[in-house]
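Q: I'm writing up a methods section and want to include an example of the input and output format. Could you take the sequence below and give the corresponding predicted structure tokens, formatted cleanly so I can copy it straight into the document?
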Amino acid sequence: MTAFLATSTVIGKTPGHNGIEIDTRERPRVRAYRLAAPPNLDGLVNEPFWADIEPATNFIQQQPNEGLPATEQTEVRIGFDDDNLYFGIICFDSHPENIVVTQNRRDASLTDTDSIEIQLDTFNDKQNSVIFGTSPTGIEFDGQVSKAGQGRGGVGSPARAGGTGGGGAQRGGSAAFNLNWDAVWWVRAQITQRGWEAEIKIPLRSLRFRPGSDQACGLNLRRNLLRRNEQSFS
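A: Here is the clean output for your methods example:
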């Protein structure tokens, strides 16, 4: 794998009545950058190379004000080397003392805590994807979505398919969510003065993708800001 280009895939969204028309907007693109050295996986996105990477940002609310910009900024940077895919995440928060953390066990519901989810459609087929999620304390949440994309909106949303809502694997409608899938990966997160931050390392062997260069993958990023009951995505 010599390059990784991710395109945002709208998953299970309806038109925003207060701002951007979510289903018809141009899908943003974000590039993954080859790293000369891996990050120090400490949950602080402060290595100089992170600053040189253009982030995915400009998150849009899904709830409560669908289509409006998120109330707090989020930046997600992507890097890779021959063996791993890396994410550097900054969830800015104007009041970090009010960040909500209610879960500390693996695969716990991410809807009950401040959190972020990364959904990777590695074949860009809008049918299947894998999900990696975490919280300000660095819990590990992962799962698989399959048989999605049969309805409007593309890849099925894990929240609607029973994923981040908890309760284990659940099948319904056109989507199937498998919470029992556990990948090998690592995450560290910390609450900082600018909000909370996380660094994620996913071995490429934990992912299925087409070998080759300059391939595009579907990507959905979702942030949960619990105290405002706000979910936003990019």
